[in-house]
Design a protein that fits this description.
The complex is a heterodimer.
Chain A (H helix, E strand, L loop, with lengths): L1 H19 L1 H18 L1 H4 L5 H9 L14 H6 L31 H19 L12 H7 L21 H29 L24 H17 L4 H21 L6 H13 L33 H21 L2 H4 L2 H12 L7 H12 L3 E3 L2 E2 H12 L20 H25 L5 H32 L4 E3 L5 E3 L2 H23 L8 H36 L2 H40 L13 H9 L13 H9 L4 H23 L3 H4 L5 H31 L15 E4 L15 E4 L4
Antiparallel strand pairs in A: 1-2, 3-4, 5-6
Helix pairs in contact in A: 1-2, 6-8, 6-10, 6-12, 8-9, 8-10, 8-15, 9-10, 10-11, 11-12, 12-14, 12-15, 16-17, 17-18, 18-19, 19-20, 20-21, 21-24, 24-26
Chain B lengths: L1 H14 L8 E4 L9 H9 L8 H11 L4 E4 L5 E11 L5 E10 L8 H15 L4 E7 L3 H10 L2 E6 L9 E7 L37 H11 L15 H4 L3
Parallel strand pairs in B: 4-5
Antiparallel strand pairs in B: 1-2, 2-3, 3-4, 5-7, 6-7
Helix pairs in contact in B: 1-4
Classes of the chains: A mainly alpha, B alpha+beta.
Family (chain B): Belongs to the acetyltransferase family. MAK3 subfamily.
Pfam family, one (chain B): Acetyltransf_1
Organism (chain B): Salinomyces thailandicus
């Protein structure tokens, strides 16, 4: 008995403590005494403390806050006012009953069973959609009975008692069919919950994991549930039901059975699940409503301080669409992580992005499922470990055709062999890069607001990884002298492969963090110029870095052709194609960014876009706030506001600026045309061909739109004789601009101002 | 630093909107249980689906009563109110936080909210705040306009920040240079029950994901009163376990 056991246990502790430390012993003795007193409470009986309490309360002034220094706002927020119907979920209004008035053991018509099952399907998908179980599945009185703490294995509606054999058809439908369905459903809550919660990253804002103190039949094995579902299927065949009704129930049971199987990994056929669900959908009209089988009164007994909330109402049509979408997302998650995509880190990275950008965005469970497939074990595919993935990434980008980072070099065990020594250094660098590298995949499995925020947090980490990369590159050079080529200023430069690799990923993340800023609409119109300018700056850094890699690749190719190493030659050629595609894409990004910075800057110069009054702000502090994610970087220090202003100075008059925009866009379009010709193998978009084509199309449309807008601006300015307008010449009276919200853009990341002539009123 | 605050204060004076002659602005002050508390509570909870308990108001007003300002009419009826706090943010900069702002609907559009914000901002500057933060719904354009006109920038979009499913922007105003370089430390919330207001039931999910901290943040967010929306890169809470 625990009540007797505790004081004894503490007594023991005290004895042990005596030998070691007197004060500990005293504490333990006190604890034991207090425990004894506390536990003997029952024996002493109940005493009324109302008067003492009231007297003590009178010592305080009204509203006086008595708290220690550790009392936080959270605790303040957590406080409830008991008996306030809007706060106290246990409050029972006068005349109401505490429990819902419905007997879950009574037999039901088959068509009522169909309705309950369908209602549960609606509530289950609402849970996936971000609503708490307390407002959804837990409002089912049948589920509530099975989850009741008084219930026990094998979990029946009769609190563990197995109903007798002499059951009517209607009773069988409840005690065998509906029960099995509910058990299956509970397991189908438990398993996704487990997948979601075992990921490193998931979002509580998108998905409520809270169980409100309930346990999801932990002691019941999924095998038993599967068996119960099989029994239920048999039962449906044995009771006397019209054919269509029997079929409808069977379809629902099969759906549950199949869903359980894919969740358990026994099957991966999510598309079959869609078919099953379609069958259920086609028979939904048979259902006869029985709303009494659900009640939000169950919330009164759930462990929570969240205020009472009404049971959610979800239409069947809506739920059906959501289910279909969930299954389709799962099918796609499976496809995007198929073996042949996982062979190439960059195809896989594109695949994760493609998944994140499915419309509408996949829910938490689907994203966790993808994350689980990617990172659930240390293998990304049967024969590809995460370590291989990282090594391939490095090799594809910077060291194709080089014995450095050749997996074979990692096998050499002769301690004096430079390949062995170099592999050890590279291996040690990879260990340090490993977690952050996997985060490149993991982060993209979040909702998009969170992708941006985790990106901003990862930038300084990658920047410090760059320091490690630099040191490692030095070591590699010391062990085996690395080739140098004449640099841009004539001084010889080395490839510094690991630095180049780290920097590529870092700048990618930096650029994407800015682009996601456009997508999440955090920049005001007057900030667009600076942010596109910054994006242009980083894109230039990136394409210069890539061209640096490309030069060494070409040089390596010369040596390899002579040596006739065909494997290395093939690798190098593939890398050349790929780097070429990257240069083209980053140059496109740069040109678009520069063009938009130019156009937005011009519109600001001409007072068409103007900043808010900002009475409390100082320009430099605004810059600080905006640049915060990049502010602490050592290797790519954020440009100062003065640098930004300097580059804005030489932009000339309106027609010069528009000319420059057009020129830039012309080149960007050429790049896009060139990259469009590249095959999925060359540009590494295997498995995401459709998304790739769509993306390029969107970029092309953005280019066209941009040219249309500058010509529109020129036309208006010509009409008003303002072609040579420059900073300070206000065109506010004649030009107006609107900035499309994300949903209305040709591409979420590119805000093309819509320019029109201001109509005089 | 002090010159910053001076500048800001004088700008405020210049920009002050006249024309609300029938209104006067007063700080809540040091009085712990002011006769205005019920009115404040009523005004703020009007916009809320789920009310705050009285303790939430007391939490702010008891500790930062000087950062709470009220707009009163000639008959001392409460027309608008702003409630704030000011304390170090994660061991770093002194962060002012605007927790609640409300004006009576029939008085909106007269710049009362702006006046309240200005008074609170001035007071925070006077008390040596480094920065001021707040959240507001992404589609609350009047509110965004007020803050952005005063100089706040949107720094983050917080998906489904409020429990009603609405998404928020985090807005920030720096008052001193060098804030981004100031180190902050992740909050030290231990692995917590999901429902933070319950005594531990022992059955915490073996978990990861955004557990305690984020939940607390969400609860607080639902109340629109705290700026703790979890930003931890390391959501497993490992950071808190390591020595930072």
């Amino acid at each position: 008995m625990p009540q007797d056991g505790l004081p004894e246990a503490t007594h023991e502790l005290a004895v042990k403590g005596d030998e070691a430390d007197g004060s500990l012993a005293t504490a333990a003795r006190r604890l034991a005494q207090e425990a004894k007193q506390a536990l003997s409470f029952g024996a002493r009986g109940v005493s009324d403390v109302t008067e003492e309490f009231a007297a003590a309360a009178k010592q305080l002034r009204p509203g006086q806050l008595v708290k220690d220094e550790y009392f936080t706002l959270f605790e303040a927020v957590g406080a409830l006012e008991i008996m306030d119907p809007k706060m106290d979920s246990g409050y029972v209004p006068p005349g109401d009953t505490f429990d819902a008035d419905f007997d879950v053991c009574r037999g039901l018509e088959a068509i009522e069973i169909i309705w309950i099952i369908d209602e549960l399907l609606c509530l289950e998908i609402a849970w996936h959609d971000g609503y708490p179980l307390s407002q959804t599945v837990f409002t089912s009185l049948h589920i509530d009975r099975l989850l009741s703490p008084d219930n026990r294995k094998p979990y029946t509606f009769l609190y563990g008692e197995v109903p007798g054999v002499e059951l009517s058809d209607e009773q069988q439908l409840v005690h065998t069919v509906l029960r099995a369905y509910c058990l299956g459903l509970i397991k189908c809550i438990q398993l996704p919950l487990h997948i979601v919660q075992s990921q490193n990253f998931y979002e509580e804002e998108d998905f409520v994991t809270h169980l409100f103190g309930q346990e999801l039949l932990e002691k019941l094995k999924t095998d038993d549930v599967a068996k119960a579902l099989d029994d239920a299927l048999r039962c449906v065949r044995n009771v006397h039901l019209p054919a269509d009704v029997a079929e409808a129930i069977e379809a629902r049971l099969w759906f549950r059975r199949q869903y359980l199987a894919v969740l358990l990994g026994e099957s991966s056929d999510w598309s079959n699940l869609i078919t099953r669900h379609e069958k259920a959908n086609s028979s939904h009209e048979l259902a006869k409503p029985l709303p009494a089988a659900f009640s939000d009164k169950v919330q009164r007994q759930l462990a929570t301080s969240t205020p009472p909330r009404p049971m959610l109402e979800v239409s069947w049509t809506h739920a059906y669409k959501k289910w279909t979408k969930l299954c389709a997302d799962m099918v796609e998650a499976d496809r995007l992580t198929s073996v042949w995509i996982c062979q190439s880190p960059h195809c896989l990275q594109r695949a994760t992005w493609a998944f994140a950008y499915r419309e509408p965005q996949p829910g938490t469970f689907a994203r966790a499922y993808l994350q689980d497939r990617l990172l659930g074990s240390d293998m990304i595919a049967e024969d590809v470990s995460h370590f291989d993935l990282l090594l391939t990434d490095i090799r594809d980008l910077v060291l194709a055709g080089d014995p450095l980072a050749d997996p074979a070099s990692f096998q050499i065990e002769v301690p004096t062999d430079p390949r062995h020594l170099c592999s050890r250094h590279i291996g040690s660098f990879m260990d340090k890069a490993f977690e952050e590298y996997l985060n490149l995949y993991r982060m993209v499995c979040q909702n998009r607001c969170r992708i941006r925020r985790t990106f901003t947090q990862t930038i300084p980490i990658l920047d410090s990884l760059e320091t490690v990369a630099k040191e490692t590159d030095e070591e590699l050079h010391r062990i085996s002298s690395q080739r140098s080529l004449p640099g841009p200023e004539g001084t010889p430069v080395r490839l510094n492969p690991l630095t180049s690799w780290t920097r590529y990923h870092k700048i990618s993340i930096m650029a994407k963090s800015i682009q996601l800023g456009f997508e999440t609409d955090i920049y005001l119109p007057d900030e667009l110029c600076a942010m596109y300018w910054l994006l242009g700056t980083y894109s230039l850094t990136q394409s210069s870095g890539l061209k640096h890699i490309e030069r060494f690749l070409l040089d390596r190719m010369k040596t390899l052709t002579k040596a006739r190493n065909s494997r290395y030659v093939a690798e190098t050629l593939a890398s050349q194609d790929w780097i070429r595609s990257l240069v083209l894409l980053w140059e496109t990004t740069r040109l678009l960014a520069v063009a938009l910075a130019n156009l937005c800057g011009t519109l600001m110069d001409l007072d068409v876009i103007s900043p808010p009054a900002r009475s409390y702000a100082q320009e430099r502090l605004l810059w600080d706030a905006r640049m915060k994610p990049y502010m602490t970087l050592v290797h790519d220090p954020v440009p100062s506001i003065d640098e930004f202003h300097r580059t804005r100075q030489g932009t000339g008059d309106l027609s010069t600026a528009c000319e420059a925009v057009d020129q830039g866009i012309k080149t960007a379009k050429q790049h896009l045309a060139e990259v469009k010709k590249m095959s999925p193998q060359q540009a590494k978009y295997l498995g995401t061909e459709e998304q790739w084509a769509r993306e390029l199309k969107q970029l092309e449309t953005t280019c066209v739109a941009l040219v249309v807008q500058t010509s529109q601006l020129m036309k208006i300015s010509e009409k008003h004789g303002k072609k040579e307008a420059r900073k300070g010449d206000s065109m506010r009276e004649v030009v107006e601009v609107s900035l499309p919200e994300p949903a209305k853009r040709y591409h979420l990341w590119w805000v093309v101002p819509q320019i029109s002539e201001r109509k005089r009123s | 630093m002090s010159s910053n605050s001076k500048n800001a204060v004088s700008t405020t004076d210049k920009d002050a909107v006249e024309g609300d002659g029938d209104l006067h602005y007063v700080p809540y002050g040091a009085e712990k249980e002011s006769p205005y508390l019920p009115a404040i509570r009523q005004l703020i909870s009007r916009d809320l689906s789920e009310p705050y308990s009285i303790y939430v108001y007391r939490y702010f007003l008891y500790q930062w009563g000087d950062l709470c300002f009220m707009a009163l009419d000639d008959h001392n009826n409460l027309i608008g109110v702003i409630v704030c706090k000011l304390e170090p943010h994660r061991g770093g900069p002194m962060r002012g936080y605007i927790a609640m702002l409300a004006t009576r609907s029939e008085h909106r559009g007269r710049g009362i909210a702006t006046q309240l914000v200005k008074r609170a901002v001035d007071k925070m500057i006077e008390k040596d705040a480094d920065e001021i933060a707040l959240e507001t719904e992404v589609d609350n354009y009047p509110s965004l306009r007020i803050y952005e006109n005063l100089g706040f920038l949107r720094t983050k979009r917080l998906h489904r920040y409020y429990l009603n499913g609405n998404t928020a922007f985090r807005l920030i105003l720096y008052l001193k240079p060098g804030i981004p370089q100031r180190p902050t430390y992740p909050p030290e919330y231990p692995a917590m029950q999901q429902d933070p207001y319950l005594p531990s039931q022992g059955a915490a999910v073996p978990g990861q994901g955004l557990m305690g901290e984020d939940l607390v943040a969400r609860q607080a967010a639902q109340m629109k009163i705290e700026d703790v929306y979890a930003e931890t890169f390391d959501v497993k809470g490992e950071a808190a376990r390591q020595d930072w």
